[in-house]
């Protein structure tokens, strides 16, 4: 029994090392955004995307055009596993600026992808005070109203 307990707790330490520390992600503005910062937002949408995905590119364009609708919701553009230079090149091509650059984060180690069990892109993850309240592959204003209510 003692041997079992030692093995069990060793495996726990291997599988869950991130619980003791905060995880940060580089953004396109040269800074970092921590997972704790994201969790502290009252309302947040994580949009998980890649540069090679045509549906992701369409959704990204829609999100950027409708940003006024999301004035009370923090949107983070989570790139799933691509290199910084590739994402920067795409962002330059699409004229990402200001808040979009600051909130475009690179999940190069797939922390968020694993954390939220993302199996396909694009994926939208809806958070309310750090808790997941929804997940989908599309976004409509009606869906946002249903999830977050109307302010």
Essential attributes:
7 helices, 151 residues, Glutaredoxin, two-stranded antiparallel sheet
Give a structural overview.
The protein is of the alpha/beta class and 151 residues long. It has one domain: Glutaredoxin, CATH 3.40.30. Helix content is 39%, strand content 24%. It contains seven helices and seven strands. The strands form two sheets. Strands 5-4-3-6-7 form a five-stranded mixed β-sheet. The termini are far apart. About 8% of the residues have low confidence.
Provide a quick synopsis of the model:
The chain is of the alpha/beta class. It has helices at residues 2-15, 35-39, 54-65, 84-93, 98-102, 111-115, 141-148, and strands at 24-26, 32-34, 43-49, 74-80, 104-107, 123-128, 131-136. The protein is built from seven helices and seven strands; from the N terminus they run αββαβαβααβαββα.
């Amino acid at each position: 029994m003692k041997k079992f307990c030692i093995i069990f707790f060793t495996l726990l330490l291997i599988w869950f090392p991130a619980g003791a520390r905060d995880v940060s992600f580089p953004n396109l503005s040269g800074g970092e955004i921590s997972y704790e910062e994201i969790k502290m937002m009252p309302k947040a949408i994580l949009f998980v995307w890649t540069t090679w995905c045509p549906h992701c590119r369409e959704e990204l364009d829609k999100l950027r055009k409708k940003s006024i609708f999301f004035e009370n919701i923090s949107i983070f553009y989570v790139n799933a596993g691509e290199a910084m230079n590739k994402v920067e090149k795409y962002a330059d091509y699409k004229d990402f600026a200001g808040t979009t650059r600051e909130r475009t984060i690179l999940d190069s180690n797939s922390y968020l992808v694993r954390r939220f069990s993302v199996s396909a892109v694009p994926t939208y993850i809806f958070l309310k005070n750090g808790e997941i309240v929804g997940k989908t592959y599309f976004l409509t204003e009606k869906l946002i109203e249903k999830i977050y209510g109307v302010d």
